[in-house]
# Entry
Amino acid sequence: MSISPKAALLEEYALVARALSAPARLMLLEQIAQGERGVEALADKTGLTIANASQHLQALRRAGLVASRRDGKSVIYRLSDARTLALMDLIRVVAERNLAQVERILRGLSDGADAPESVTRDELAARLVEGSVTIFDVRPPDEFAMSHIPGARNVTLADLDRIAPTLAPGSEIVAYCRGPYCVYAYQAVTALRKRGLNARRLEGGLPEWREDGRQVTAL
Amino acid sequence: MSISPKAALLEEYALVARALSAPARLMLLEQIAQGERGVEALADKTGLTIANASQHLQALRRAGLVASRRDGKSVIYRLSDARTLALMDLIRVVAERNLAQVERILRGLSDGADAPESVTRDELAARLVEGSVTIFDVRPPDEFAMSHIPGARNVTLADLDRIAPTLAPGSEIVAYCRGPYCVYAYQAVTALRKRGLNARRLEGGLPEWREDGRQVTAL
DNA sequence: CTACTATTCAAATAGTCACTTGAGTGATAT
DNA sequence: ATATCACTCAAGTGACTATTTGAATAGTAG
# Structure
């Protein structure tokens, strides 16, 4: 006698959730969302050993969250579906809504202040047309190089001290980074606001911008 | 030195996903979505022991997916948020899209045929006003008693053989059950269609209908 | 207070998971 | 063929998870 279809279905749904239940795999997904990549690059970016990253990637593939193809010697992983991104984001929303610990961490990133409202992608797109806003891409240069929002300037957190004084005091700045789990943009906004600049975070990051069907630039 | 805020955040997101990574907890969530309940009732419905159910429920609460309150001797659990329901559903969608195994199981429920398109809740609401449709609530009687779609008739799978001959051959039937993970409605639709009746599944189940802000009836 | 009910906690078990190490495989270059 | 590169597989370890059992706690009724 086989197990009930109901139990089999729940087992499959649980498999999807389990794939998202390890921080290492969430990191990998965040990286893959920046653009497809090979195992070694992903392992580097996430600080995992290659064998370990490979195994996590296979777990993600079994759960249908990523897909892979062989390209010469490399195996390139990519998100299988925009829904993977939506799922990651919904988990974030649920966690932010319901877990006090998350609120505490986010508050810490803003140095105790309430984080200012984030800028929607629609709003940023409108401002871009007007040219009334400065965009900071706060990701590492190699990720910026792969693809970024047109007109964005690549600024790492370490650069901020140097760059802040060169900015007109009233100018509006929008910072973005990797996506749902990005932390850099919070930190950049906090640092800029401490200097009296009018900085805000973009809602989501580059993957969401791209997913909206908006234009991106490669260097 | 404390761990990085980034790692702490990912840990929290992983906690939410981990809560959804066990079939037992998905069953509990499905039950709680029908309406708030005590531990014993939930344990009964899911076939878990009371101590085990209690521990799973606490895991769900730690992840912020459910909330609880004490009512006399009982502790009543409820969904903390409509987003919990959205999250469960998105997991189902991702699994259905990307996992061949899930498609196979669903096909099995429809006896190898493609499942007919499901009826949207909007469509059903419109038909309800016209009175041009028969609604079957395929959940167990006690869940039907707690709350159901107005005008629905409570029909268990075992009843179908008896009831099918009494239905007018052309009449449209819409079946629904618990929600995202419901299996009964598939089976009911399959059984009715085999008899030449024009049956379809409702998209989602009672919790989604209620979440839309539509009317529900208690017996 | 005592008995009782509903739930939680604690400890023990078997099972699964994450990560490391080292060997194995597939594709390309020499 | 041989070597190299990029990745995967297999096996082992320590840590966590699911489940059971029995004891402990919170609330109610007598």
The two ends of chain B are 59 Å apart (CA to CA). Residues 82-98 of chain B form the longest helix (17 residues).
